[in-house]
Amino acid sequence: MKIIEFSIREISIPFATSFKHTLASRIRTSAVLFEIITDEGIHGYGEGTPREYVTGESVRSTLMTLKGIAEKLIGFKLDPTHNVIEQIEALEHTLFDGSVNTPSAKCALELALLDAIGKTREKSALELLGSQKTTTIYYSGVLSDESPAKTEKILTKIKTIGFQHVKVKVGNDIEADIQKLDLVRSVLGDNIQLRIDANSAWNLKEAVSKIKHYYDHGVNIVEQPIPADHRNDYPVLLKKIDSRVKIIIDESVLTFDDAMWFIENEGATGFNLKISKHGGLLNTLRIYRLACVNGFACQLGCHVGETSILTAAGHIFAGLADELIAYEGAYGKLLLTYDVVDHPLQFGHHGEYGLDDLKAVPGLGIEINPSLLKKASTHQFRIPE
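Structure (tokenized):
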């Protein structure tokens, strides 16, 4: 399999509704798509979602990184009959300087390679990476930081879908957030499982106090309460709160070494895993397996506005993993006004999504619509030009 051409795009797709939390507010996607074309006419697609407040990457820096990689890989040959994982890992080791944090670019490249190799071998990316363990998952709803009136409208949709799990974005106004939680329970009932995500909103003292209040209101799963640059506070936090409260880490865990630190220092009880944030499926699986061995819980997360490319990657990860504590993403046209595929990957009633067909489709298992891809693209580089 010889790579002869690349296309690198910034894409921007308007949302059907805005999405807010303490670190950002978004009304459209912010992503980079990477396309590789082989000498056999195979097209492989990957996606990265750079977030400056998480990894320090920008869309522009990710585009430039991928442009440089594409220039190095023109004419590069992969043997699709040999160990795929070893070849991709060797290539990533050569291309990415360990001192440079570019997980979104690495993710986009890795997914494009898996997609192309899978299509060449007529095998699914899941089969290239391992054996399937999970066939059905249930996505959770997410309630962003909105006005009470908009919150009620969103809750009506959540009730109609029938989610059994809901994550609520919270901030610094605990009274308003407690009222929001009470509203959620009044609309969705007492059997709904609630978890909260502070997105780094609190310091240590605030986290200890607020987590107690939330626990008294029936919430025992708290995501990223303290900023990533204060990670030494996390082991202290766990000693000060009720042991029945689960602390799930998101922005603080980007790499395998980050995950190891939290395990060794007893700074959390679980990780929110995002394919782009960790640099692709291979590293996400490494972190997941490390967590499992050490008794840490994991959930599948997403960056808001992912297209069906990253959603498909999330499904592959979910299929390879045993049951996770939560699944996020696959919003499809509930969030995006359109996607880069004709039939966006989107959960159904109760948030259910079946993974039975993962092994039946080659590569990532999606078919890109060139017209929709062009519509979504705001900037594009072709290598060679």
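The mean pLDDT is 93. The first helix runs from residue 52 to 55.
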